[in-house]
ABC-type branched-subunit amino acid transport system ATPase component (Kaistia dalseonensis), 251 residues
Amino acid sequence: MNIDARSDVLKVEGLKAGYGEENILHGISIRVPRRSIVAIIGPNGSGKSTLLKSIYGLVSIRGGSVTLFDAEEKPVSLVGKRSNAITALGMNMVPQLANVFADMTVLENLQMGSLPARHKYAERYERVLDALPLIKGMLSKRAATLSGGQRQMVAFGRALMSDPSLLLLDEPSAGLAPMVQEEIFSKTREINALGVSILMVEQRARQCLAIADYGYVLEQGRNRLEGTGAAMIDDPEVIRLYLGGGKKSAA
Ligand SMILES: Nc1ncnc2c1ncn2[C@@H]1O[C@H](COP(=O)(O)OP(=O)(O)OP(=O)(O)O)[C@@H](O)[C@H]1O
Ligand SMILES: [Mg+2]
């Protein structure tokens, strides 16, 4: 389907945000069409995590707009809202670091993920286990005892327990062995096929663009390039900057 023909689930316009005195994002604009996968790539320190955190209410917004559209396409401004309220509105995030409660069991992690949306717990629990069958066998294990890939699956499960229509993923493949990275990318695609829109930041630019409907390149807190995932993979400038040896920004 032509990506331009879809309505948006998220629209960010002219977003400015930062820490302390310093501004990090200098007017970022992106959109996430409903049920799509959108990739954000860019060099270290370009503001990718800051972008996801400000969308999810973890970094305060200093300018611009962040709008989530509900199932009836009614716009809701996320500016000034806290993460818990944002989760309840249908958006959740798997952060770059510390994305599971290490001292809790897998089951407790899933239960924690369910807190902002209390209704139909049993139904959501069944759906999450169906989507992530791998975690069925580890429900009573402490998250700290799991491998990196297993932990990432639990982090996905925890986020899915809130029944999000949009999931933000910050470098889900980071620090994982190549085969496990492949599992993370294919699982991301499966979750998307269940109807969840995905906005993901990745260092593995080529693999991420390969599953993305659309991609954005950030540089120093600004939009640098954008295009469909397929067009970006073939774009000489993207290749030069990020895909050259296939490993430049991935090392
Ligand atoms: N909590 C913080 N306090 C102050 N400055 C921060 C904080 N977090 C990030 N920064 C700064 O903001 C800038 C952007 O950081 P950010 O983490 O958003 O980049 P990134 O694109 O996600 O990088 P990476 O690829 O390394 O994850 C960097 O200069 C960083 O040092
Ligand atoms: Mg980051």
Confidence is low (pLDDT under 50) at residues 246-251. The first strand starts at residue 8 and ends at 19. The pocket of adenosine-5'-triphosphate (ligand 1) is lined by residues 19, 24, 42, 44-50 (CB under 6 Å).
